[in-house]
Every structure is written in C-alpha cells, then in structure tokens.
Design brief:
There is one protein chain. The chain is of the alpha/beta class and about 300 residues long. It has 2 domains: about 200 residues, Spore Coat Polysaccharide Biosynthesis Protein SpsA, Chain A (Alpha-Beta Complex); about 80 residues, no CATH class. It is about 45% helix and about 20% strand. The chain is built from 13 helices and 9 strands. Strands 1, 2, 3, 4, 5, 6, 7, 8 and 9 form a 9-stranded mixed beta sheet that branches. The termini are far apart.
C-alpha cells in the first residue's frame, strides 16, 4: 500500500501565546495521516518561542529568526519543509479536521493543480460568525490568476500548494509586510498551473483586538495597489483591454472605498478612476457623495436640528 504524501504545515508566529494553543490543536486534529509541522518564531517578544519548544517532543520542527515579517517566516519554513504539499496556517486561525484531507483529494484528482483553496469564516470580537468573501467569485482553474488580479480572495490559512511549485516561484515576496504578500503569492502561484477549490468553510479566522488586517486596509493604496498594477503591467500582453479595464476598475473601487473615510482625497481620486474604468459608476458615485466626511457632518447637523 502506497504511503500518503507528506504535508508540511507552515506556521509563522509572532507574539502568539494567546492564540497558538488552539491553532496547534486544530493541526493535531487533522484526519490526514502524514503531517509535519514547521513553525517559525518571527522574533516574538512574549513566550511564543518557549511555547513552541514544548511541542518539539511531538515532532514539531521549531525555527526562530529575527523579526522579518510573516512572508519571510514562511520562506524560512518552506526552505526546510519535507512535504510534497505545503499547507499554510496563521497562528491565530484554526482548521476543520478534514481540511487537509479534502484538499489533498483535489490534488490527487488533478496533477495540473498547483494550489487548492477553500472557504473561510471569521469570528468577530463580539462572537458573531461571518463567511469570508461570500459574494466574490472563487479563483478556480487555469485562469484563476485573472480572478486574483480582479479581487482578493484567499488568505494564507486556506491555501495548500505544491512544494516544488512554491519553491520554483521563490516563495513569498519578503519585502511585502502589509498584507499584500498573500495576494502576490497566490497570483504568482496561479500563473504556474490550475487552482483547485473545496467549496466548504474549512478555516476559521479569529478577529483579534488591534488586528493588523484593519490597519493594513487603510494603507492598501500604498501596498496592494502598486503590487496589482505591477502584475497588470507584466501581464498586459495576456489581458484584453476589457479585462484590464475590469481589473483596474474593481481594484480602484475596492481600495478607494476602503480608504475613503481615512484619506478622502486619495480615496476620491481612486473612486473617480474606477468610474472612468466603468466599474459600477452609479454605485461608486453614490459612495462618493453619501460617505464623504462633509456629507456625514451635514447629516449630523441636520439630525441635531431635528432633535
């Protein structure tokens, strides 16, 4: 009987003592029988490294490095991983017990598949549970890179990828440290083959107080947008004018709305670019007018007057 392929679980850790125990417990609960864990402490200032060391007796491989960001920590693990497949897991997320097994079934059924994603849910600070990206199209198939240019979808904890392909593209781009690293990684990976998908919520994300993801949203015009524009320029000969317009319009709209209240001048400029690219012009114009800071101040004054 052929042994099942080894899967290397890659966990970058930074000041994660509060969440790491449940993350590791979800790995131990996996039904897939062949797993190695490679955890990298990214210069934590709490007891994360000591906590990881207590699991070395369970066969966990524990590495440490000076703080360099999650992308660099994943690359450290990728360099030493022994598995045929890499499964990425952030230190504050958890997996459904069948997560790896269901993704490995997709790999087995399709040799051309280089990455497999799944759906995810997030538990908010108030305890409510919500699906992640419920209305967005999952990036699937040999043209998944086009969808990934159009909108973000996968977070690292939902992604499993073939190790050979991951190394061939050079892993994650370590200089990206503001949330754009996972989008860039998936785009480059999807350019090497097909993306598979398990249509089930197999990952739970746990929102944390002071979450970096919220901070990163306010900087997407400085981080995500330049990365997407660089990919679009490099892939211009493979994108039709309409595809390019749709991608740029969608990104200008999404990022413009995300930053509009915090940086109204920049947000407005991006929303106007989205309108120029014919992306939901009425919706973007309505957002410009109704969400503007001066509009909200007027509404507050009118409400005071009515009171």
């Amino acid at each position: 009987m052929t042994a099942p392929p080894l899967v290397s679980v890659v966990i970058p850790c930074y000041n994660a003592t509060a969440t790491l125990p449940q993350t590791l417990a979800s790995v131990r609960a996996q039904t897939w029988p062949a797993i190695e864990v490679v955890a990298v402490d990214d210069g934590s200032r709490d007891g994360t490294l000591a906590l990881l060391r207590t699991h070395e007796a369970d066969g966990f491989r524990v590495l440490s490095q000076a703080n360099a960001g999650a992308a660099a920590a994943r690359n450290t693990a990728i360099a030493v991983a022994k598995g045929e497949v890499l499964a990425f897991l952030d230190s504050d997320d958890t997996w459904h017990p069948e997560k790896i097994a269901r993704q490995m079934a997709v790999f087995a059924a399709s040799p051309n598949t280089v990455m497999v994603g799944c759906r995810a849910e997030v538990i908010r600070l108030d305890g409510t549970r919500e699906p992640v990206n419920p209305t967005r199209e999952p990036p699937i198939g040999p043209d998944a890179w086009r969808t990934l240019l159009h909108h973000s979808y996968y977070v690292p904890s939902v992604v499993a990828a073939r190790t050979a392909t991951t190394r061939a593209i050079g892993g994650f781009t370590a200089r990206y440290r503001a949330g754009e690293d996972d989008q860039d990684f998936c785009i480059r990976l999807a350019l090497r083959g097909a993306a598979g998908f398990v249509d089930a919520p197999l990952v739970t994300m746990h929102q944390q107080p002071g979450s970096l993801s919220i901070v990163h949203l306010s900087r997407e015009h400085e981080t995500v947008l330049p990365m997407i524009l660089a990919h679009c320029e490099a892939l211009a000969d493979r994108l039709s004018p309409r595809e390019m317009r749709d991608i740029l319009g969608a990104r200008y709209s999404q990022i413009g709305r995300n930053i509009y209240l915090g940086a109204p001048a920049v947000g407005a400029r991006l929303l106007l670019k989205a309108i120029a690219n014919r992306h939901d012009p009425l919706g973007d114009l309505r957002y410009l007018l109704t969400a503007a800071p001066w509009t909200r101040r007027i509404k507050r004054l009118l409400n005071i007057g009515q009171g």
